[in-house]
Amino acid sequence: MGKKMAIILEGLMLFFFFMRGGEAVEIYKDPSQLIHKRIEDLIGKMSLAEKIGQMTQLGRTAATPKVMKEFSIGSLLSGDSSVPQPQATPQEWIEKVNGFQNGSLLSRLGIPMIYGIDVVHGHNNVYKATIFPHNVVLGATRQRDPKLVERIGAATALEVRATGINYAFAPCIVVCRDPRWGRCYESYSEDPRIVIAMTTLITGLQRHNPINSMPFVGGKVG
C-alpha cells in the first residue's frame, strides 16, 4: 500500500510539473500559494548575507543595478535633492527606478526592491511637480481642514506613481514642542489632536481608510 501511494504522489508531482510548462515554480513565486507559505519558503532559501541585504536601505547615489543584484538590497531612497539628473522628466525617473529594479530581479532569488522617496510637501524632488505647503503651515491654517490634507495626499500619490515609485516617505507624524529641532516644520502642530486629525494625508496617499484602527498613530486623544 505504501509503495502504491508513493507512485500516486510521484505521478501527481509530474502532472503539476508538466501543467506548469515543464518548469518547477518556487513556492515563494507562486501567487496561488498562501502568503505565510511563500514567506516561509523564501526565508528558508535566503542566506545570512541576503537577509542582511533585504533589511538594508541605500541612498540612491550609493546604488547601481549591479549592487542591487550582488547584495540583494531590499530598498532604495531618494532623499534630499537625490535625482537622476537635474530637471529629470518623469520618464527619466521611471527608467532609473526600473534599472535598479531589474538589477534586483536578476539576483539569485529575484526579490524585487522597494523604492522610496521623500514627499513631505508634494513630490518635491521632481522637476515641475506640485509643491504643497509644509506640514506646520497646514496645521496652522484657520480651518485645519483634514479633507483638504487628504486631497493633497491623493494628488501627491498620483505624481509619485507617475515616476514609477511606490513608497512615499510621508507624512512626518511628530508633535514638535521645541522649535530648536531642525525638522519642526514637518510637524503639523504641538497639539497631538491636530496631528491626529491631519493624518488624513495617509489615507489620501494610500487611497483607502484603515479598518477600525489608526496604525500610524499610537493612540487617540480626548
Notes on the protein architecture:
There is one protein chain. This protein has 222 residues and is an alpha/beta fold. Helices cover 43% and strands 7% of the residues. The protein contains 9 helices and 4 strands; from the N terminus they run αααβαβαβααβαα. The chain has helices spanning 2-19, 35-45, 48-54, 65-71, 90-105, 135-140, 146-162, 192-197, 200-206, and strands at residues 57-59, 75-78, 114-118, 167-169. A 4-stranded parallel sheet has the order 1-2-3-4, with no helix packed on it. Helix 5 (90-105) links the parallel strand 2 and strand 3. Helix 4 packs parallel to helix 5 and helix 7 (146-162) packs parallel to helix 9 (200-206). It starts with a helix and ends in a 16-residue tail after the last helix. 24% of the residues are buried. Mean pLDDT is 85; it is low at 218-222.
Number of helices: 9
Strand tally is 4
Instruction: Provide the β-strand percentage band.
Output: 5-15%
Strand order of the largest sheet: 1-2-3-4
Describe the protein's topology.
Blueprint: H1 2-19, H2 35-45, H3 48-54, E1 57-59, H4 65-71, E2 75-78, H5 90-105, E3 114-118, H6 135-140, H7 146-162, E4 167-169, H8 192-197, H9 200-206
Parallel strand pairs: 1-2, 2-3, 3-4
Question: Gist?
Answer:
43% of the residues lie in helices and 7% in strands. It has 222 residues and is of the alpha/beta class.
